Amino acid sequence: MLEGAARRIEAALQLERREARLEARVLAARALEVAPAWLLGHDRDELRPAQAAALETLVARREAGEPVAYILEEREFHGHLFRVTRDVLIPRPDTERLVEAALERGPTQGPTRALDLGTGSGCIAISLALARPDWDVWAVERSPAALVVARDNARRLGARVRFQEGDWFAGLEGQAFDLIVSNPPYVAAADSHLLQGDLRHEPRSALASGPEGLDDLSRLIEGAADHLTEEGWLMLEHGCHQGDACRVLLNQQNFRKVSTLADLAGLPRVSLGCRPFKGCRESLQHTRIHT
Ligand SMILES: C[S@@+](CC[C@H](N)C(=O)[O-])C[C@H]1O[C@@H](n2cnc3c(N)ncnc32)[C@H](O)[C@@H]1O
């Protein structure tokens, strides 16, 4: 049963056998309403007709290219299970680096205000709020449909997050935060990857950002200083080729302690800086990549 499903997924999507087997197992677990681990000892069991029909439906959807997370309507992130729909980006393991960076640099004492811009499923804001229930976590999102999903995730996971519909900083006049984090759209609009794999099924408005993929990163870097406390941090996820550009933009806005963090694969994926001193005109040039 599993072998046949894995072969079909492998052939349709040109996946590696191991990955196709993993996908076949989670789809079969959903169809049979069992835990994936249960299938390890039952993968050759005869299926009842209703089970076979349910599995066939799920495998056919995957064969057609639909992402597993949208088929199952869930994805694990930072140890929590998030509901995902086609209205939100599927949370990526890479983004856990941003959450970890925020938790490492956030104040350890006293009231802390954190802001997640472009919250999508809510995975970053909710993970921060669950890890630090004492923080006052805000989350902004432009898409009303995504906000419905994010609010539902916060409710189901028991996280206290203040959600707000808006265009980046537009609705945040007078608000200042100790941490501003964002995984904004950062793919170049003409990038052919947008037409491949899971990306073709995800909201374009969550992915593409101008000719170089830098339009939203630039807007966030330009707008952040007005919404950071004195020692507040701005932390941005970006593509692995955008670290240099992000550090240039941060330095142009006089951010301090500018650096780029690498992900587990050693690729530069999160750039950050501390709020510029008031009135500071000189750009600090100390930039480095931490691995
Ligand atoms: C790359 S997705 C990240 C979603 C989620 N934070 C995550 O990491 O999985 C970017 C999100 O930013 C939202 N977005 C795009 N432009 C925006 C804007 N101008 N103001 C607020 N949110 C925006 C998109 O709708 C999308 O949900």
Please, could you describe this protein's structure?
- By secondary structure, this protein is α/β, with parallel strands linked by helices.
- The protein folds into 2 domains: 2-65; 87-290, Vaccinia Virus protein VP39 (Rossmann fold, 3-Layer(aba) Sandwich), CATH 3.40.50.
- The protein is built from 9 helices and 10 strands.
- Helix 1 (2-13) crosses helix 2 (17-32), helix 1 (2-13) packs parallel to helix 3 (49-63) and helix 5 (96-105) runs parallel beside helix 6.
- The site of S-adenosylmethionine has 22 residues, from helix 6 and strand 4.
Strand line-up of the largest beta sheet: 5-4-3-6-7-9-8-10
Radius of gyration: 21 Å
What percent of residues are in strands?
15-25%
The distinct bound ligands, ions and cofactors come out as: S-adenosylmethionine
H/E topology pattern:
HHHHEEHEHEHEEHEHEEE
- Work out the oligomeric state of the chains in this entry: single chain
The stretches of 5 or more residues where confidence is low (pLDDT under 50) are 281-288
Could you give the distance between the termini?
Answer: 43 Å
- Overall pLDDT: 93
CATH topology of the largest domain: Rossmann fold
Assign a percent range to the helix content: 25-40%
Note the total helix count.
9
Domain count: 2
The CATH H-level superfamily of the largest domain is: Vaccinia Virus protein VP39
Characterize the largest beta sheet: strand count, sense, and whether it forms a barrel.
8 strands, mixed
| Overall SS class | alpha/beta
Count of DSSP E strands?
A: 10
Please identify, by name, the CATH architecture of the largest domain: 3-Layer(aba) Sandwich
Name of the CATH first level of the largest domain: Alpha Beta
Coarse morphology:
elongated
